Amino acid sequence: MKDAAGAFHKETNLFNKINGMLNDDLQNISILPNNRILYGAKEGFIVYDPNVAIKTNYEFRILLRKITLTAPADSIIYYGNLSEVSGKSNTSLTNNQEFTFKNNSIKFEFSATYMDGLSKTSYQHYLEGFDQGWSEWSGKNEKEYTNLNEGKYTFRIRAENIYGQISNEVRYQFSILPPWYRSKLAYASYFFIFSISLSVLLIYISQKHKREKNMMMRDQEKELNKKDSELKNVKTESEREIEKLKTEKLKADINHKNKELATSTMHLINKNEFIAHVKQNLTSLVKKNPKDPLAGDLEKIMASIDQNISSDDDWQQFEIHFDQVHGNFSQRLKDKFPNLSPQERRLCAYLRMNMTTKEIANLLNITVRGAEISRYRLRKKLGLSRDTNLAEFILNF
Q1: CATH number of this structure's domain 326-397, picked from the four choices 3.90.640.90, 1.10.10.10, 3.30.980.40, 2.60.40.420
Q2: Of the four listed, 66, 225, 248, 378, which is most buried by Cβ atoms within 10 Å?
Q3: Can you give the pTM of this predicted structure?
Q4: pLDDT digits (tens, 9 = 90+) for 120-139
């Protein structure tokens, strides 16, 4: 084609309409009069007349014809001819619509207002917020999106006619609301529940800490009481031990004094018995020789002996001191066993003082065998069985 400057340039858009009609194998082009050209086509002939003007640059629009929610079931929300050029449509459509999360699948249908080569018109779409960019040109005049996430979206479409012209762009804004469990109310509820749970947890931890603290204090108090009790027990045991030692020492002192008293008394008794024996011998001599000049002197000696000897008084004095040490032993023994002879009571006193048989025999001025016989007789008078120890019975009496 020749332009105003007289230069020629190649014009191909005019022939886009017949590209699919020409033969692929047997191409035939003939020049007719008046610069007309005859093309051999698949289904006949095509005549091109350059003198006939063909307008290829007039404006055309794209229309958003139908919007359908496809899940959970098909629901048409728009059926019209929305165009951004006029800004109006024959059916009302609110831009920036909001849909629930369960209606997150949507289908768009669209078309172009260009009839020449309608089947060759191609479309391009772009969903802001989901697609990375414009799609490839395609003759498909619908687009469906499924399982969209919550958020704001803008659906953009445009068309290209057979001559390569691009139409206006139509935009449709809509929003998918989050599911109920991701809504603002849900997050507020989560925050409220979390706050309540945290408060309950803090209260529980605080109460648990208080319980543990109180339990620890009770355990410490128990431990202190236990220690105090142990110290008191140790103190009591120490006092008992000291008292026991004092008692044992006192008993030892009493036993020592008792033995000293008994020994001195026994010596006195033995001395008196010896003196009485001497007096008896002197009396026999006087009776045998009453006219002996020495008889008068012997009688004076016997009178002196009578004045100084006090055998019974000495034994009575011994019993008094002995009963003071041994809890009135002699008197209790007389009360319970009145048939005991004085010598048997002495034997009981010696056994109470834990003396040996040999010591007792010496004190009673008898043989050891005689002391054993005296012990045997004493058992019979006390009514003791063979299984009962005489010394233990006297010590525990």
Answers
A1: 1.10.10.10
A2: 378
A3: 0.47
A4: 889 999 999 999 999 999 99
